[in-house]
Amino acid sequence: MCLRKDMSDDTSFVIDIEIHRDKFFENIISIIREIFN
């Protein structure tokens, strides 16, 4: 049970990183668009 909880915590942590990375790239893309516009 403890192992399962740890695994799910790790998964949610990884998902958080994925979401932040996506937003990070979206921000960079919008900045680049601003520069080229």
Question: Concise description?
Answer:
The chain is mostly helical. It has one helix spanning 2-36.
Q: Notable features of this structure?
A:
37 residues, mainly alpha, 1 helix
What does this protein structure show overall?
With 37 residues, the protein is mostly helical. The protein has one helix and no strands.
The major pleated sheet works out as: none
**Which regions are unreliable across 5 or more consecutive residues at pLDDT < 50?**
none
Quaternary form: single chain
What portion of residues is helical?
A: over 70%
Tell me the Rg in angstroms: 16 Å
Number of helices: 1
Please render the helix and strand layout as text.
Layout (H helix, E strand, L loop, with lengths): L1 H35 L1
